[in-house]
Design brief:
Number of strands: 10
Distance between the termini: 35 Å
Largest sheet: 4 strands, antiparallel
CATH class of the largest domain: Alpha Beta
Order of helices and strands: HHHHEEHEEHEEHEEHEEH
Strand content: 15-25%
Number of helices: 9
Shape: globular
CATH topology of the largest domain: Alpha-Beta Plaits
CATH architecture of the largest domain: 2-Layer Sandwich
């Protein structure tokens, strides 16, 4: 089991932007809608929807908002169709970036992202231009102060998880894509509840960024995260902790 976490800074940065922009509800609603459209509106038979609803409730989302999102996904309520699209490219410093979106207008989304990439000195690529640098996995995050790593590892190994590592205040469990919700339920049976569960792109290797490139990269990621259609961002950068804290606290 690995002892370091290459993608922890991306998650910390992402969380900061979610808080700053108040985007969490918007992202959850889109996830509920997409999950209901793909797997039906019954959470008992749709693990992805069940997980999204659990996150919505833990985030104090009103019940009527959840129900409305489910009904839009199943077609019981009118609403523009939400489509999942993944974009890839290179940001400042040659950092590979994968962006997961949920959009009702893919032309708007791709044009906006292309502009953000171009203005940062990067470029939006074709499908699979950087995906080969990442592993697509399931991911569960646990709060470290409530879930000791040794206990998480014990349950994870028994349930068949691929990896466990410590992040910034979290213990992260990596799974096969098709096993993430099954392993999540194994944890819940012993009273351990992840703060989030879903899918992620884990970089196979990282690019170290420093100086001006580091600042440009974080500004670029902030612009991407602030876009209303963006659900998740994955990048393969490494940065000195002190520099990261200095730049993100500006």
């Amino acid at each position: 089991m690995s002892g370091h976490n290459r993608w922890s800074k991306v998650k910390r940065f992402k969380g900061a932007i979610d808080d700053k922009r108040g985007k969490l509800f918007t992202k959850i609603i889109k996830e509920i809608t997409v999950a209901a459209r793909m797997g039906g509106g019954d959470p008992n038979g749709n693990p992805r929807l069940r997980a999204a609803i659990t996150i919505a409730k833990s985030s104090s989302m009103p019940r009527e908002n959840i129900e409305r999102a489910v009904k839009k996904g199943t077609g019981e309520l009118e609403g523009q169709a939400i489509e999942e699209i993944v974009y890839e490219g290179y940001g400042p410093g040659g950092v590979a970036v994968i962006i997961e979106t949920a959009t009702d207008n893919k032309n708007r989304t791709v044009n906006d992202l292309r502009t953000i990439f171009k203005s940062s000195g990067g470029h939006l690529g074709e499908p699979n231009s950087v995906a080969w640098m990442f592993d697509r996995c399931g991911q569960l995050l646990f709060e470290k102060d409530k879930n000791p790593e040794d206990k998480v590892m014990e349950v994870a190994l028994e349930a068949g998880a691929k990896d466990v590592s410590e992040g910034d205040g979290t213990v992260d469990v990596i799974t096969e894509v098709n096993e993430v919700y099954q392993i999540k339920e194994a944890f819940e049976k012993v009273g351990m509840h992840p703060t989030s569960s879903g899918f992620s792109y884990i970089p196979k290797s990282t690019v170290r960024v420093e100086g001006d490139n580091a600042l440009k990269l974080l500004k670029f990621l902030e612009q991407v995260e602030e876009h209303d259609d963006v659900q998740n961002v994955h990048a393969n950068f490494e940065m000195d902790d002190k520099l990261f804290e200095e730049l993100t606290n500006k």
